[in-house]
Design a protein that fits this description.
globular; alpha+beta; 3 helices
Length: 129
């Protein structure tokens, strides 16, 4: 686990997260984004309903209804952080994203107005966006 596209369930906040950076390039700064339900009538600038990356039911086993990536809540952690969380059962592995879905999440990170600057810098530095 802990490769680009890997997915995990965070037991504390009950959301699915995806690793969108390349942990092999930088194991101490891993960019992780989570999915959340898209609320269609929310404002287009609402960070909880970011339309930069919309995911549809069936794109991934964890996506059962129209969702989006919550870039405002992007997390940056290390391989060691994730390993500790896994050991403490704070996260549970899921199926990895397809290459197409991973690319879609990365491209959303490039166009969103809500991603934290450090996360964008990591993805750019790694040549992923």
């Amino acid at each position: 686990m802990f490769d680009a596209g890997d997915c995990y369930w965070a037991t504390i906040n009950r959301h699915w997260y995806f690793i969108i950076s390349d942990p092999r390039q930088n194991p101490s700064q891993i960019v992780q984004v989570n999915t959340t339900t898209l609320i269609p009538d929310a404002g287009s600038h609402d960070p909880y309903n970011d339309r930069s990356c919309i995911l549809y039911a069936g794109e991934h086993p964890t996506i059962t209804h129209t969702s989006c990536i919550y870039y405002w809540g992007t997390q940056i952690g290390s391989i060691n952080d994730l390993a500790r969380r896994l050991e403490r059962h704070e996260i549970k592995p899921g199926d990895p994203a397809s290459p197409e879905m991973l690319e879609k999440m990365r491209q959303g990170a490039l166009i969103t107005e809500h991603i934290i600057p450090l996360a964008a810098d990591i993805l750019i530095e790694q040549g992923l966006v």
